[in-house]
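Deliverable D4.2, example record:
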Amino acid sequence: MDRTTLAQCRFRLPLQALTPFELADGTTCLMLLNPTGGLVGGDFLLTQIIQEADTRVCLTTPSATRVYRTLASPAVQETLIQVGNGAFLEYVPDHVIPYRNSQFRQLLRVEMGRGSRAILWDALASGRVACGERWSFDEVDSRAEISLCGKTVFLNRTRIHPASLDPERLGFAEGFNYLATLVLVADGLDGWKETAAALDAELRNVPQVHGGASALASAGCVVKLLARSASDLLSAQAALWARARQIVLGSPAIDLRKD
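Output generated by the structure prediction step:
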C-alpha cells in the first residue's frame, strides 16, 4: 500500500487540524483540536473529511471535548466522512463531558465505499463527576449514521434529557458515569458473530465495566458499554480497539500517548 498523505486541509477556529503523523503500521493519524478549551452555546463545528481509495487514516482528539453551560442555542458538532474504496478508517475521539446546564447536539455520518473498513468509537460522560455535576446537563442529542456501498448498516440516536427522567432508575445508568459505543463495519469480512464473541471476552477482562457486543444485520458488529470511571472507560477502549484492529484491519494495537 502506498503511503497515506494529507493532500488538502483548511480549518477555521475554534476547530483546528494538527500536523498528521504516521503510526508504526503505516496509518496516518490526524488529531482534531478545539484550542479554545471547549464548546459554548451557539458554536457550530463542522468537519468534512474525504478519504481517498486505499488509504489508512486514524482520526482522534488530544483530549476530551468539554461542553460548557449553555444560555440559549445548543453547541453543535457535525462530522461527515467519506471513505473511499478499499480505505481503512479509525475514528476514535475522546469522550464528551457536558457541564451543568449545557446543551449539546452531535452528528457523525460516515459513507463507506466498496472494500472499505472502519472502527468507530463514541463515548459520553455523565458530567463533571468530581465537581458533583453528575447528569446535571440540560440535554445531549447524539446521532450516528453509517452506510456501506450506499446501504445504511448502522443508525443510532441517543437523546438524554436528565430533567425528564431519573438516571438512577433500573435500565438506564444506575451507578455508572460513562457510556460508550464501538462500531465495526467492513465490506467483505465474515464471521461477525465470532467477532462479537471476541469483543465480549475483552469486556469481561475489564473490571467495573458492563456491556455486550452483537452482530449487525450485515457487515459489522456493535459494542455498547457502561463504565464507572474515566480510567475504566479508557481501559475498555484500549482493549476493544486493540482487538478490533487485529480483526478488522489486521494490525497490532497502537498507543497514541496523549498524556
